[in-house]
């Protein structure tokens, strides 16, 4: 990713500062620039609806005028808050020594990402947004949509930034995990860092061969990867490895199955994002 571009998504959440620091860390290692986006939702909740359009027939003109002015003030305040968020993010990233541009957009977050992803090489997003769990159009609730929809790697930042010194690749032998291995072997992002290839499940001949093939691919990229096989359910076993092994970053394939299967039996990807206290780099 020489002279590439990162797309970093920020809002007013506590995760945005971490997004900025991780974006700067990635940019410095990959010689990239950063474009920060703050996306204003089309509707910011029922209490921010266009009140002037809800006036009933016969209402006094001065009330209509006052509500129209209120709508205009709200719009200006929302825009001003968005610009302030971007200015803070820009200051954090520039303090880390990286070139950055800011973009304020209005609309659906995922639609904005898909419209702009061709201009970037990776998307950096916080695990949860400022309105996670009670509003639909914010980063947290849109995270799975971004990951499933984008063709680019997605870096999911945790709450607190920590320099990455050790990496765990969650490997299952599938296409997306092989893509992750190939990506890392060709990319300067993790150059020089210790890497562990980890598989959760039964130790079989086929799995051993897949792991050795993946290790050979990483070796061609300059990595001396270790191999770990951990019995148990993938999310629990891998989560324990991360916690016990002091890894600072998890790399894994994302959503290898359909949404219908996800609804029936759950998703290792979602569970890892939910429970891991370190950032996760996801490949589809």
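-> sequence recovered:
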């Amino acid at each position: 990713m020489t002279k590439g571009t990162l797309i970093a998504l920020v809002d007013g959440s506590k995760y945005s500062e971490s997004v900025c620091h991780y974006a700067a860390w990635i940019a410095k290692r990959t010689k990239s620039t950063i474009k920060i986006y703050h996306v204003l939702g089309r509707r910011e909740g029922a209490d921010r609806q266009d009140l002037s359009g809800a006036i009933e027939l016969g209402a006094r003109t001065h009330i209509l005028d006052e509500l129209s002015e209120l709508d205009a003030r709200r719009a200006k305040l929302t825009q001003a808050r968005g610009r302030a968020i971007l200015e803070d993010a820009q200051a954090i990233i520039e303090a880390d020594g990286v070139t950055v541009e800011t973009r304020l957009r209005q609309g659906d977050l995922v639609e904005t990402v898909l419209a702009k992803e061709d201009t970037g090489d990776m998307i950096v997003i916080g695990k949860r947004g400022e309105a996670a769990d009670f509003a639909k159009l914010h980063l947290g609730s849109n995270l799975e949509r971004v990951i499933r929809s984008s063709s680019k790697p997605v870096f999911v930042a945790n709450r607190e930034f920590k320099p990455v010194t050790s990496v765990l690749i969650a490997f299952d032998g599938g296409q997306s995990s092989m893509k992750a291995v190939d990506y890392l072997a060709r990319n300067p992002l993790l150059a020089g860092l210790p890497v562990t290839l980890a598989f959760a499940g039964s130790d079989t001949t086929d799995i051993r061969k897949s792991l050795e093939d993946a290790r050979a691919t990483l070796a061609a990229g300059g990595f001396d990867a270790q191999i770990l096989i951990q019995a148990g359910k993938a999310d629990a076993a891998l989560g324990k490895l991360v916690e016990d092994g002091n890894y600072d970053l998890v790399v894994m394939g994302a959503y290898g199955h359909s949404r219908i299967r996800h609804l029936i039996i759950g998703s290792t990807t979602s569970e890892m994002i939910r429970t891991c206290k370190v950032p996760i780099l996801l490949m589809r």
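The domain at 167-283 is CATH 3.40.50.620 (Rossmann fold).
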